[in-house]
Design brief:
mainly alpha; 9% strand
């Protein structure tokens, strides 16, 4: 560490971590090998949670935020699967039309 900054590294996690392990790993980056350091989680909190103290009901708040994130990710995955299925159906329909047209042209030229 630089002598001009004797307080160590300050880590800021700017999005809600996927799990506690990820958060702990990020915070662990702050103080390595006995060096000083600190960290902070800075992210937008849902209005229902903002009025609750992280110290008082932090477990509930973090679980709710994690649940909401998991639900949003599941919605995104479902949409991706749905989009992929639609693209595959369209591709299959176009390939079928192309094949039918190709056979029709071959018949016309015999």
């Amino acid at each position: 560490l630089d002598a001009a900054f004797p307080y160590g590294l300050h880590v800021i996690v700017a999005s809600f971590p996927a799990d506690m392990r990820s958060f702990e790993q990020a915070m662990g980056r702050a103080g390595r090998k006995g060096q000083p350091g600190c960290g902070r989680l800075v992210c937008k909190i849902h209005p229902d949670i903002a009025s609750r103290s992280i110290d008082g009901e932090g477990g509930w708040a973090l679980k709710k935020m994690h649940q909401e994130r998991a639900e949003e990710e599941e919605r995104a995955k479902r949409k991706q699967r749905s989009d992929a299925i639609l693209a595959l159906q369209l591709r299959t329909a176009l390939q079928t039309k192309f094949t039918e047209r190709k056979h029709a042209i071959k018949k016309e030229h015999k």
